[in-house]
Amino acid sequence: MSIPVLDPRSLQAHDSGPPALLPASWLANHLNSRRQEVNAFLEKSLEGGARHSDELRRVMHHAAIGSGGKRLRPLLTILAAEACGGRAEVSLPCACAMEFIHACSLIQDDLPAMDNDRMRRGQPTCHVKFGEGLTILAGDALLSLAFELMATPSTDLPATRQLSVIQLIARSIGLHGMAGGQAADLLAANAAVSMETLRLIHEGKTAAFLQACIVAGSLIAGAAAWQLDALRTFGAEIGLAFQIVDDILNETGHETVTGKAVGSDQALGKATFTAAYGVEGSRRLALEALNRGLEALDPLGPTSAPLQEVGRFIVARNF
Amino acid sequence: MSIPVLDPRSLQAHDSGPPALLPASWLANHLNSRRQEVNAFLEKSLEGGARHSDELRRVMHHAAIGSGGKRLRPLLTILAAEACGGRAEVSLPCACAMEFIHACSLIQDDLPAMDNDRMRRGQPTCHVKFGEGLTILAGDALLSLAFELMATPSTDLPATRQLSVIQLIARSIGLHGMAGGQAADLLAANAAVSMETLRLIHEGKTAAFLQACIVAGSLIAGAAAWQLDALRTFGAEIGLAFQIVDDILNETGHETVTGKAVGSDQALGKATFTAAYGVEGSRRLALEALNRGLEALDPLGPTSAPLQEVGRFIVARNF
Questions:
Q1: Does the beta-carbon distance from A162 to B158 stay under 8 Å?
Q2: Residue B17 domain flag
Q3: What is the residue range of B279's domain?
Q4: pTM for this prediction
Q5: What is the number of structural domains in chain A?
Q6: 3-class DSSP state of A124
Q7: What's the complex ipTM?
Q8: Which chain B residues are Cβ-neighbours of A148 within 8 angstroms?
Q9: Residue from B44, B52, B115 whose CB has the most chain A CBs within 10 Å, to mutate
Q10: Alpha-carbon distance values, A162 to A72, A196, A220, B18, B273 (Å)
Q11: CATH number for the domain harbouring residue A76
């Protein structure tokens, strides 16, 4: 069976959906095109404003745009919306809000009072470059900008749907999500923790927000209950897989891949999957989670292919 | 003319509005009753959840509730809503969101990387008590909780109105508001700044959010354009007056009143109104701003009396 030759015009953004046979080139082009739209929107969101806030804007720009990143979370939101029949451009502001929230969490994670990392993605971390005060304020401003974007009125989006997204995201990053997980992680450093606690920490720290990015996309698309269920399961499994792979990379990965010092979590005495299950055991757990996630997407058919691809990428980052 | 004797039942919360003659006891009772409703709702908002996040919840509770506070911002939101004919209980979740945001800004302000204050309201500051890491995370969780509350579906509130409030508040605390002002303030320490810059810093740092709390109340009440204009002007003037009085208190106030070391802003080489206009000149400026604010409320009639009272309190804190 030969792979069909695609008309390049069919590879443009906002096309009518994936071709039936989905050659790898279509997928790669689709993801690239979405990533470019995200990057353009992120830039636009940080334009304008008064001169006295120029320096803070520079810090925000460095944190969210200038220091690179795969735009995984905004892609998950957009592709989840598309998997449920939604249009990419309608989900774009909320998708970019996810990247601003993610950037806030990264620059805070690196602070001396948290993980005390001086390098991230091969560059000096935000507080090393701009100081701790401006880094903390940039975090606040990134969070605020994210909520501002999610609340931007849209003719394509019922206001009640936007409120659901805002509630979902706010919960996923607050006391019962990311912040709560981070706090439990801080408190668990150098302490013996049960596997149950390890799971709760990781669910809060990483999985809750990753899953929320995916569920937000399906909410924006006005997904039916069965679609929402599928995306929720996919999100939970991908969130789990993501954290396991992060733990593996932290122990085995090369510094140029992870962008931070190898073994730094171990040095901090942190609770990790590799410490509990070993590297091979952890790899098996990650693959099992991925497979459960992909299976959940089955009923959605070919519109979910790009989302599946990102799922596979998340687990394949290192092996 | 004798002051009418009020039936105590008319002093309950959610009564039908102020009596025509507004004796001081009615005002005091009204403000007290609203403050109690705010305190009860703040407590309720922090209940429940998983055990592994107990410690972070404790930090949030200390920051927002346990360490005291006048509940000025939630009162402003509720009273602004009532001044425009809205019901207090409909504005209560958003009003309490304002207190959580305020608490976040306070615990961050005190951090070593910011003002480096070890005392606040006569107690050790949050990071002194719980450490910097948990303080930063509590700030995030307080912000998230605030947006979650603002996005809570309500049968009494159109979703579009809630989105407007979220947008307004997000802007007022972000790059073009509080965070931007704080950043400019940090950068201006020990530098010569123009009066124009001083105004921009204070507008962002304090006035933008205070004004937004007031405008949010009127949005929630579905205010007409003329009411919104009146509240916007009142908010801008009260915001300005608030910052001027803060500067005066920092220079002349007693540590038990301000809860922080007298002259600490001067010690940091910060740009202040008192440094620019002297204490007497600053007092005159604050009174002028208050009077312009009260004048703007005139067209609203007696429903705005409690709001006027809070305005007067803001300026009368020290003289």
A1: no
A2: no
A3: 23-316
A4: 0.90
A5: 1
A6: strand
A7: 0.90
A8: 166-167, 170-171, 174
A9: B52
A10: 21, 34, 7, 37, 41
A11: 1.10.600.10
